[in-house]
Input
Amino acid sequence: MLKDQARELHRLIPDTAYRTYSEYASAQGEDVVTKARGLTTDAILKEVLDSGLRGRGGAGFLTGVKWSGLSHHSCKKRFVVCNGAEGEPGTFKDRFLLRKNPYATLEGMLIAAHVLSADQLYIAMKGSFKKELSRVESAIEEMTSLGLFDQIKIKVIRGPEEYLFGEEKALLNVIEGAEPCPREAHYPPYEVGLFGNLVHPNPALVNNVETYARVSSIIRNGAKSFRTLGTEDTPGLLIFTVCGDVARPGVFEMEAGVTIKHLLNDIAGGAGAGRRLVAALSGVSSRVILAKDFDTTCEFGALKGIGSGLGSAGFIVFDDKTDMGRVTQAMARFLYVESCNQCTACKHGLRTASAGLDKMFSGSSSGARDLEQVLHGAKGAPQGNRCYLPIQGSRIIPSLIENFRTSFQKTKKDFLSTSPYQIPKIKDFDEEKHLFIYDEAQMVKRPDW
Ligand SMILES: Cc1cc2nc3c(=O)[nH]c(=O)nc-3n(C[C@H](O)[C@H](O)[C@H](O)COP(=O)(O)O)c2cc1C
Ligand code: SF4
Output
């Protein structure tokens, strides 16, 4: 199959938002939920496995392997959960997708329900995602009136603002009415899911908004055509977010395997006049990507190969006027504030890192010793950790310090002359103006929420 044709078939984001399910369905040409219900579980699992689809929530876990494992779980009560918390700084892809096309995600969830014989579905978003909540609720109404949710209950969850809400074990806790704090590491959702216990664990399938939507197009159009797109390591299309110091920030659906350089320069407009791009961060989870590595392709393996990661395909871009020390301070503070303090080393280590950087930029640093403390705090944060957050801190903070040392070796006057960096926790996106709106409340959030 020609690539152009496959690209059209698997593209999730239309130029103009689908207004109704029938508009969406007629563009797709086939009712994929009815098609899936006519297929065996094994046939669907084979297609998802063959597609090589990797989860779009950040870790890139093979979706087919996750679904297969759950389908063989001895507990027959299973739940299907969609993670729409989208809290990663520099990422807006799930909300953009839900605004333009909420149907593919819901179809993917219904296909998962068929595979797992699940009759209870949850789609969890932040309560502040007003546009997406109303879009999803009206899509559910439409699809319900067509009988697609017969014998199936779906609940829309309005969750809290916290970053940890998106961590899958915390997400399940929120659905159960608790705080967004991750459960013990040895209770992954595919083992212990919702409203269960160790005798009746009720496992839950947790996938990202985009992951479910990709399954819908894979079952409709086949794994083979999906495989013609992207790379061996990361097949298919990705929805990229590019924000920061580029001329044309935005959300772009493209094949995996494009180079970072192409994405930042040709698609997102590159640096402003007279400026030069120096680095990018793929969210707050991985090591910084330096401009010398911008020839790297956007796929899970290649980015891991340079010591970083693809994450949720959101890139925060920095040009040569950005004070990378201030960026480091903002990243450390974000992770410290968002840590839930269930694991002492995590909160304590990140507090040490964040406080040390704050001290420098307030002009009261004693120099190199403070920087060593920052590194010590960040590197020591992951100990007995329930979740991945402190591992993120132990990667991103040292990588920024090691690569931008001179940003931390200033005179008191120079430290004081810099301005704080606002972390791009994205609140909204003006597509016409190519403008992201950041959440200012994050700057003043207390670490003891
Ligand atoms: C601190 C933290 C925050 C996360 N936030 C999100 C999020 O907002 N959305 C998301 O889909 N996954 C998030 N994840 C990843 C989820 O835990 C989980 O891996 C993902 O929902 C699995 O879906 P996938 O296999 O489709 O990628 C987060 C993980 C961590 C450690
Ligand atoms: S590792 Fe950190 S963020 Fe994760 S549960 Fe423990 S204290 Fe909370």
